[in-house]
Design brief:
Elements lengths: L1 E6 L4 E6 L4 E6 L8 H8 L3 E6 L14 E4 L14 H14 L3 E5 L1 H9 L4 E16 L17 E11 L5 E6 L7 E4 L3 E4 L7 H11 L12 H6 L4 H17 L1
Parallel strand pairs: 3-4, 3-5, 5-6, 6-11
Antiparallel strand pairs: 1-2, 7-8, 7-9, 9-10, 10-11
């Protein structure tokens, strides 16, 4: 938070302005982008740059940004043979955490953070694709970053087949019927979300277009029509995402 003073004839007025945050985004595929996080960045006058691993796996030095946002993707954290840039990406995530940066991981991003912090990443018993409820742990606990005053459980958008152990020294924030490890917070500044609060109509459409072969009906897999029919949930998901980002920005 930056502080400045305006002098008038009779008094001094103290003005607070939000510091411009330099955000770097690790994007793994073209169809899983920042979504509404991009809108929050623009609205608040922050700066964002990208490493798009599907184009150029060039990673900046850890001192070149304040926040690191790690997006999702269809690959596994264990696919280093097929995607060798995963090795350097994990090193960069570890460096950002050790440097005390704010780090946010979504879906694959949360799995990468979990693994970097020593948690095992493995196939979930069920794929989870579509709109399903998550329940918050310790909803009266002020440390639960997801406790934004919304209803509990919260219907959110999922698209994942793997999950992770909650890393040591982390707060377990949420779980669902299909997957115990839905979210965690490490040292107050490192957030892993297994689900997609950032989705927009465009990004959901892109995910369906590029992953339609995965929409095989299952206990926790919805059809394309079922997913699109619940698009009214996008607004509430985006509001929660904005509230979480606001909380992190005030730290």
């Amino acid at each position: 938070m930056a502080l400045s003073h305006l002098l008038t004839k009779n008094k001094r007025i103290t003005v607070f302005s939000m510091k411009t945050i330099k955000i770097h985004c690790f994007q793994h595929v073209h169809f899983e982008d920042l979504g509404c996080i991009g809108s929050w960045i623009e609205k608040n006058g922050h700066a964002v740059e990208y490493t798009r691993f599907y184009e150029n796996p060039s990673i900046p030095g850890v001192d070149e940004y304040d926040w690191l946002v790690v997006m999702g993707g269809p690959m596994s954290v264990n696919d280093e043979g097929e995607f060798p840039w995963l090795v350097e990406e994990k090193k960069a995530i570890k460096a950002a955490i050790e440097k005390g940066k704010t780090v946010i991981g979504i879906c694959l991003g949360s799995q990468l953070i979990a693994q970097v912090l020593g948690g095992k990443v493995y196939k979930n018993k069920e794929k989870e694709i579509g709109w399903f409820d998550i329940s918050l742990t310790g909803t009266n606990d002020s440390e639960n970053l997801l406790n934004t005053g919304s209803a509990n459980p919260i219907k959110v958008f999922h698209w994942h087949g793997e999950t992770y152990e909650i890393p040591a020294n982390s707060i377990h924030l949420a779980y669902s019927a299909g997957c115990r490890s839905q979210a965690f917070l490490y040292h107050g500044k490192v957030l892993g979300l297994q689900f997609h609060l950032e989705v927009t109509e465009q990004s959901i459409g892109a995910m369906i277009e590029n992953g339609r072969n995965e929409l095989v009906k299952g206990t926790f897999v919805q059809s394309e029509n079922e997913i699109l029919a619940q698009a009214t949930c996008i607004g509430s998901n985006n509001r929660i995402m904005f509230q979480i980002l606001d909380k992190l920005a005030k730290q």
